[in-house]
Design goal:
This protein is mostly beta strands and about 120 residues long. The protein contains one helix and eight strands. Helices cover about 10% and strands about 30% of the residues.
Length: about 120
């Protein structure tokens, strides 16, 4: 559970129709961030491979190792965070992590997690 929760609930970042809330979250290294699909649609949490620190682990809902694998899986209906479900990732390397939702990328559904030193 992240320390930067603005929800006061059991998650850090919510997902509405076409946006992450908040779209920018700052946490300390070692924090586990929890996303929750608080909307009605199927979303993904997919890191931009070029948008994370070089030495950080790639992350994507569905557990894919690369952005392309996540995109390919989505076309087969895989990797979604369904309504009411959560996805979490623990950030260990400080830096900026840009991510997006595959089906709503063109609609601007993206966000960033800023990880600071402990
Ligand atoms: Cu979405």
């Amino acid at each position: 559970m992240g320390s930067g929760s603005s929800s006061g609930g059991d998650f850090d970042i919510g997902m509405s129709a076409m946006a992450f809330h908040p779209s920018k979250l700052e946490v300390k290294a070692g924090t586990t961030v929890v996303w929750k699909n608080t909307g009605m649609r199927r979303h993904s949490v997919t890191a931009y491979e070029d948008g994370i620190p070089d030495d950080a682990d790639y992350f994507a809902s569905g557990g894919y190792d690369t952005e392309q694998a996540a995109r390919d899986a989505w076309t087969q209906g895989k990797g979604a965070v369904d309504q009411g479900r959560t996805y979490e990732h623990t950030f260990t390397v400080p830096g900026n992590y840009a991510y997006f939702c595959i089906p709503h990328e063109k609609a601007g559904m993206s966000g960033v997690v800023v990880v600071t030193e402990k």
